[in-house]
């Protein structure tokens, strides 16, 4: 039976029975982690635990999601009442729903912060570029997961957010309409849409996510672990057990405690039963798409979508765009890179609200350029102006700060990130009836 023991235990069978559980646990850990890790990688600010927290939240979502499936009913007639029953009749049903809801929303935030961390540390170049792409795919998957889950309660919020969200999709040239038709299974949000979203949410997407995550983790090991600054390699190496495992357990306990307390205090929202005849005013997409919805208020839908696609493509091509590995592992590259990042972020914070106000109250390009078709005056022109603005920021940082290419990119991406954040915040808090600007207090 020696071969069987070797299959279970990484370092041979334990000598005594009472050590068996610990040996099984250790063996499991060593199937996921290398036996030793670089000491520098264990410093918390190296990763902020963000990849691990995202993985933990995924596990919470799978477990809570499977439990919810026991009572949820994916039919238009019964979906809402089954969720109501979870909220009022099923013991701990409301807490379970809140845990699932908030873990899903938190995962969007932690996955994006993890992306920012990897970018800041320059962990997307050379051998890690494949994992960067896989990571982007995972982020997209997390968004689609959230989007498909949004419809399931079949309340007003769900129905209209998905109606607006799939409406946004149709602006995408060529692919938009077929994707929307495929998702909805018909021209509007109805029973086929609920069935499709449920199948995607509980069957297809989890399988893709589990394969994607497994590959992502495997590649982190294969690419030599997390990115470290050159001066810390060759680094002293510490054993994974107990050093890394203790940190992971600590972060997991804090995350789970925070999530549970939050879920106990703030229940998941549930509005009135979906009513296709009564759209709420304003009808908004899910919060993570409100940046794009805000763009749509300022330019032609095609231009807004093209800008979003260019942003996504830019992120995917980042490893080709910035290949300078000299400053790998140093947050924001150098003191100049940090300054460029701060300037970019500050400009994003100042200019984005300013441009929103100017476009809302003073500038109306289609009226001003009445001779041009709106696709040009309200589409091509704002698109080109935005791209020219971004190019000017990059050039300004290069010449003004004498920043290297990768330092100026830090500034440029800080600008874009903060601008997207501001647009999302405007969409969430400052848009009221008929999507007009309002003060939230
Ligand atoms: C569900 C989403 C995700 C999970 C669970 C996840 C998990 C992880 C974990 C556990 C690590 C190693 C430790 C750490 O860095 O925290 C890691 C590393 C990495 N991740 Fe992710 N990740 C996710 C999404 C992403 C995204 C959106 C990107 C970027 C587009 C990305 C790119 C990378 C890269 C390039 C590395 C290796 C480089 C380095 O750590 O310095 N990941 N990921």
TrEMBL record:
SUPFAM superfamilies: Transmembrane di-heme cytochromes (SSF81342). The chain crosses the membrane at residues 48-70, 102-120, 132-152, 196-218, 244-266, 297-318, 339-358, 370-397, 409-430. The keyword Oxidoreductase does not apply. GO terms for cellular component: membrane. GO terms for biological process: respiratory electron transport chain. InterPro entries: Cyt_b/b6_N, Cytb/b6-like_sf, Di-haem_cyt_TM. Keywords: Membrane, Transmembrane, Transmembrane helix. Residues 1-229 form the Cytochrome b/b6 N-terminal region profile domain. GO terms for molecular function: electron transfer activity; oxidoreductase activity. PANTHER family: CYTOCHROME B. This is Cytochrome b/b6 domain protein. It comes from Oscillochloris trichoides DG-6. The lineage of its organism: Bacteria, Bacillati, Chloroflexota, Chloroflexia, Chloroflexales.
